[in-house]
Amino acid sequence: MMDFENAKAIVLQELGQIETIYELSTEEKEQLKYNVHSTYLSVDTEFLGKEGVVQSITFHIHLPMSFPMVMPKISLPVVELEKYRSFPHIDEKGGICLFDDDTTRTNPENPVGILLSCLRRAKEIIEQGLAKTNYNDYKEEFLVYWLYRYNGEPDLDMAVLQLFSGDPDPAKVNMIKLDEPLHLFSYVVHQNDENATTFLNYLGFRKLSYKDQPICHLGPVSWNYVPPFNLRNKDVKQIVSRLPKEVVNRFKNFINSGKTPKFLTASVLLNGRYHLIGWRHADFKVVGKRKGFRNGKITNYELLSSLQANDPVVRTSPQEYSPDQKQLRSIGKIFDAKGNKKFLVAGLGSIGSNLIYFLNTYNDPEFRLVDPDDLSLDNINRHLLGFIYSARGKAVGVKSYLIHKNPFQKVEYRKESVLDVMRNAPEFVNNADYIFIAIGKTNIEQYLGSLVESGKITKPMFILWVEPYLSAGHAVYLHPGSRPFRSYFEDYELFKYNVVHRDAYLSNHPLLHLKQAGCQTTYVPYGMVDITLFLSGIFPYINKIISHGRKDSCALSWVGDLDQLRALNIPLSDFATSVNERTITIHEG
């Protein structure tokens, strides 16, 4: 594989036989405000201008240290940028968008060919810009050009989060202003719907305060997609004047109202989807008598085309963060939210908490979390949550983890035992689609299994547990009306398919559990790697049961590494000696 220095030397030598090319000095890079530690080449070349006239042009080429494995960047120096600034695919700093880096493949053994292709594309963009044959490309990149800074404009500092997709009903569009920014965002625009309620609950969970912000949505607007877009008050008024009368009146009433500041949004149709753009008008101020207007008679709407006609507006392009947008980015299509799964997980220790990661791979599942305990420091190494959650309730901690990842996710929790929940609020359990129990307490598991058998628990249930050193992990799937939980166990409530021999369990073999100093500190030894192997092994079978809507009970056994049991002289069961390690066995009957 060719390294950077060899590639640069070949480019300078071979391309120098075709074009005038040299490497910019440190002084030149300083003057141009380039990174002095990076490599830039200057190339003087020619292209076909209007009417086929040959014209000269200079390009600057940035060669990253990973060249030729990655593409170089080509830009126009300031003197050239002034001539071609308004062309498609040229950004405000002169950078030329040549190819899609994610889809373009190059031959690292041909660095000269890579640069020639880039130069050829850069010239093509200039030629098409002069001929105005690529102006339709402006529409594809409209949102990028909308946020450019034109003619020394100040930074466009309106960071707005959008909680919906498509063109909204103007009557339902609302905005809030956060008292403290949420990451980059100071404003949130929403439709006062279920998504908004969930997000506002998330703000409350994080103790983030906000206040309502006046806003007016104009609906779909047709734009001239050719920049610049450094709009002034009179430009906005002219654009709005071409819209239907009811939209003009809505705009006029909002501008004339006492509400400040004046935020407005509009929808533009790009590539088959509506996108939201917006802007803010500066405050309207009239002091004393103005020529041509009687005192108190000039309105804000009139100011747009008179005394404050040339005041600039501050543009924004709200960043969409909605369930629909998340689905499009992740799976490429939008599903009906009514099909989302509701999971109850009781027991959020090392197995239950890490199971959450796998269950959360479904499309926006709803969670109901049950655990009475706080997260202790000695369990962090094999828990989903980290040090920052220590001494907090496991249930509220997992809720925090989930909604910080996805504020739209519906998560409820109870900091109490699942037995108390069943006694006091059985609907909290039975309103789930699937129930997962990862408590590791045989008596409670047997009792919950009996509730499924008696019909008091009405939804399918998975009960998961592991054997010492995670030599095996098991899950029993119980469907109401099918085979009962107790049928999978022998006398003394021993699972029929354990890998540790029954004699070791009945004799309470001292190496099956470890104990720290203090009362009630006995624990089953296993590590995070073992948990990951178990859950990643068994989850495809859990997923198959859920996706196929299986109605017959069954049991699943994952057998791990048995060498540690052998090394400790812990006897193995007949089942353990009959199966291969790292495999899943399904027990149907």
Automatic annotation (TrEMBL):
One of its GO terms (molecular function) is ubiquitin-like modifier activating enzyme activity. It holds the Pfam family Prok-E2_B. It comes from the Bacteria. Residues 340-448 form the THIF-type NAD/FAD binding fold domain. Residues 56-146 form the Prokaryotic E2 family B domain. Gene3D superfamilies: NAD(P)-binding Rossmann-like Domain. InterPro entries: Prok-E2_B_dom (IPR032701), ThiF_NAD_FAD-bd (IPR000594), Ubiquitin-activating_enz (IPR035985). This is Uncharacterized protein. It comes from Chitinophaga oryziterrae.
